[in-house]
Specification:
The chain is mainly alpha-helical. The chain contains three helices and no strands. The termini are far apart.
Length: about 80
């Protein structure tokens, strides 16, 4: 049990160190949901929070990419004003 906690904490530190700048879009909400789910799924709140953060970041990045594509499509479809 103790080795699992140490492993999870080391993974969390590695993820935090690899992130560079603090950009928490999706991470906080995902971590909260993951922690609650992990708690009810066998008292694994920390592991659930780490997993939820990763999934939340992935979904936030995916949504941002889709919005970027949509904005590019809308701006390309809009005619330029006549001079």
């Amino acid at each position: 049990m103790k080795s699992k906690i140490v492993t999870v904490m080391l993974c969390a530190v590695a993820l935090a160190g690899a992130s560079g700048l603090a950009n928490a879009k999706g991470c906080l909400k995902g971590a909260a949901v993951g922690a609650v789910g992990g708690h009810y799924a066998g008292h694994h709140a920390v592991a659930g929070a780490v997993g939820g953060c990763v999934v939340g970041r992935h979904l936030a990045n995916k949504k941002a990419a889709e919005q970027k594509v949509q904005a590019a499509t809308v701006s390309a479809a809009t005619p330029a004003p006549a001079k």
